[in-house]
């Protein structure tokens, strides 16, 4: 039963290949979290095809929203405000969610709140960690982004570093494709790595002069491709599990070193991870161990809240609502929206 002061957010997410809707109470309690994944649809192409993604979002969006309300046992009347991802992401995909949210707000007169996708990923941490409050450092590692962020307050961010080229998840996906694992590569590399030796092949750990919190993964990806080519040329058979495990370790080493260096240098006590790659089991284990050694409190969302979902948009939307953020009916999809921009 809701109390009068309860804030119920209906959240919508359609930035890439998941059509998702959720109902979230007071930013931290998920009443429903419906995700319609398009993975099977894109697998044959080895990656997300934007035009196909947009079309599938259109087919699914109303159904997913209705299901989210039904599962939560709520009607649109009970909802306080509608939050929707408006960037960054694929423009055609984003537009479907933004248009649906605007239509609902227009029909009901409820407030509309545009949410940044990365702010959503970070806010996923608030859902299961009821005691987590800013300030803290958050490493966002997804298919499109690698950001090291100081969460100064709810909705207020300082960016310490980001990737200069490929995102961490992108590197997982490209390496997975090279060793024939298919799309999406992250979970497959995670699984195969358990059978491999992470010290079998020495892949490079990129350092960027003068920007100790920036990342670069394209050199590592090329090193893996060169290794595979040279094995082929020499007629040496490749142990894919060793390649996966060694590649994964190289990514994790760099992420752990940069992130925990920042936590220490800026004097924070709390550290969180977010985004699809944050569901990687070895990454979680490595941060668990290293944070314990350094007496840093470590936070992470359940895997289903790491990859794209609308509950995280509902959590972020709640804090934006409390700050007074409201979007107009002119809200548009912004494919390259920067964190902290409105
Ligand atoms: O956050 P997300 O769902 O979408 C973006 O906002 O990009 O992240 C998707 C990315 C993909 O690159 C996928 O391969 C990666 O997250 N990923 C993983 C794992 N699960 C998903 N990477 C490594 N290990 C995993 N277990
Ligand atoms: Zn995402």
Fold and architecture overview:
By secondary structure, this protein is α/β, with parallel strands linked by helices. The chain folds into 2 domains: 8-124 and 306-323, 2-Layer Sandwich (Nucleotidyltransferase, domain 5); 134-301, Nucleotidyltransferase, domain 5 (2-Layer Sandwich). The chain has 11 helices and 10 strands. Helix 5 crosses helix 6 (185-193), helix 5 runs antiparallel to helix 8 (240-265) and helix 8 packs parallel to helix 9. The longest helix is centred in the C-terminal third of the chain and has 26 residues, at 240-265. Bound molecules: 5'-O-[(R)-(carboxyoxy)(hydroxy)phosphoryl]adenosine (KG4) and zinc ion. 5'-O-[(R)-(carboxyoxy)(hydroxy)phosphoryl]adenosine (KG4) is lined by residues 16, 142-144, 169, 172-173, 184-187, 190, 275-277, 279-280, 307-308.
Observed structural traits:
single chain, 342 residues, alpha/beta, Nucleotidyltransferase, domain 5, 2 domains, 5-stranded mixed β-sheet, 11 helices, 10 strands, binds 5'-O-[(R)-(carboxyoxy)(hydroxy)phosphoryl]adenosine, binds zinc ion
What is the name of the CATH class of the largest domain? Alpha Beta
Q: In what order do the strands lie side by side in the largest sheet?
A: 3-2-1-4-5
| SS field, number of helical segments | 11
What small molecules does the structure contain? 5'-O-[(R)-(carboxyoxy)(hydroxy)phosphoryl]adenosine, zinc ion
Kindly name the structural category: alpha/beta
End-to-end separation in angstroms reads: 34 Å
Helix fraction by DSSP (H/I, runs of at least 4): 40-55%
Tell me, briefly, the overall form. Answer: globular
CATH architecture heading of the largest domain: 2-Layer Sandwich
- Strand content bin: 15-25%
Q: Might you state the CATH topology name of the largest domain? A: Nucleotidyltransferase, domain 5
Superfamily (CATH H level) name of the largest domain? ATPase, nucleotide binding domain
The ordered string of helix (H) and strand (E) elements is EEEHHEHEHEEEHHHHEHEHH
Mean pLDDT equals 96
